[in-house]
Amino acid sequence: MIRTAKAALAAIVCVALLPTAGGCGSGAAAVPSEDQARAALDAALTAWTRGAKPGEAAGTDPPFTVHDTPWARGDRLTSFEILDETPGSAAEKRFRARLSLAKPDRVEEVEYHVLGVDPLMIFRDEDFLRNVNMENGPGLADHGRRRGRGSR
Fold this sequence. Notes:
single chain; alpha+beta; Nuclear Transport Factor 2, Chain: A; 5-stranded mixed β-sheet; 5 strands; 28% strand
């Protein structure tokens, strides 16, 4: 199981970085700098506090796309704090963040993965793992209920 998950992670990272692998170049992975990744995550979470929808961020440099299921479901973020960078793979930056959410009022500590350079891709940990493992995760209308593998 662990080998399968690692192989799936490697495949996703390779596919995510494929557009940056031109014929001429150093062959180095397209990994955002810590500052660039942190700034993009800060901009994304700030947009959430202002009521923006997840997805592609308009007018950002570099552009980024956010994948965050609770945000997409309509959870409301009232404030956040990016706590620190945590160990990740060689092709990503990973950050721990404390989120204060409303309705119901709660505080969560979550991890975000930031991949790529132009564009950047920002994944909440659960969404990243769902994509890596190709799990049949919850739909936006499920509000936390998991479907079985055979459900449609």
